[in-house]
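Appendix B. One record, verbatim.
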Amino acid sequence: MTEPRVAEFAEGVEVETRVGARLVTGVGARLRSWRVGWALLVGYLLLSMLLWHSMLGGIGSRAPEGGQGDPGLFMWWLGWAAHAVTHGLDPLRTTYLQAPNGVSAVWNTSVLALGVPMTPVTLLFGTAASFNVLLILSPALSCWSASKWLRRHVGTLPAACAALLYGFSPFMLTHLGSHLHLTFLALPPLILLLVEDLLVGARPLWPTAPLLGVTVAVQYFIGSEVLLMLALTLMPVAALLAARRAQFVRARAAQLLPAGLMSLGVAAVLLAYGLHDQFSSDYRMDTPIFQASAYVSALGNLVRPIPRLFFSGGARRGGLSPAENGSYIGWPLILTLLIIMVMLRKNLMVVVAGLVAVVAVICELDPRVAVSGSDRIALSPLTWVQHFVPLTANILPARFASVFFLAAALILAYWVAA
């Protein structure tokens, strides 16, 4: 009578031992992953500090362009966020500008999701210090989050190297110092990571779904333009992948539907007040703030760097100002990406990333074809979307370069890994 029990007990111990071993291995892997992540973050921070080394000695008293123009505007909003938080005011509205009616923070590049957590730095050291700290953090955190996402697809070294293309891209170097809402690009890779978890993760409903909703809301309060560009990129990509993996999507539908609804619900709750304020009769803007056609990149900008880059080859081409012209790719990178696309043409992720990169460049250039007389047809998907969806009217075409470099980083990561 005792032998079966002994055998049953031994089998239970063996199973428990295997489960325990897997738990220990999983914990160890997570610890190693965290150590690698911290090491990469430190490395990226050092590179960013090297980029801004001339500013470190006067981080609280210096600012790009002497604190005038766009940097001055961002510093004002950083100061407003700290003032609103410490005085119990509504951070989304202020009458300190254009009194007595005031202005809406969500119709301005107020970067509230950065200004609020930077309140202690702003109060202790001033708005210039907060702005400069964010300038240092922007490329470093963008690299780190991109490496975290890329490590889902390739090894640590390929991911770490490819992330540099995203965090220190010509787009980043061009806009850094002038457009904080465009250069704090740490969240788009994390949104992609969470979307992947939602699609293929073991627990899409919790905690992935609410985390995705929160991340989307935070990105909205950093820069809604970046969020819209990411959404316009993700929707056709998701549709393409779903068509290629229809059987998988059908099998996961019971999990994906509630998880997707939860993400949308969390984002809707967090964004409700901001969206209401943005589209209320008091602040709603029915016409674009900028004329999108004035922010189209020229073909020459793709291969000729502007004076803002360290390796400038001469004067800029096209009508974009130096602060807006971040479209430079360069012949070496263009040829490298084309060769990779040929070499890894059987890799679905590389093909999809290549399509995204090509479409992003088309959006930047906004090419048009003459049909009859002076009539021209736009080839850019963005132009067509803006024609039918007024919500996207304030996306400036040249800024799709940020999407290009994220796609290019993924392609480059797969190549380094191969």
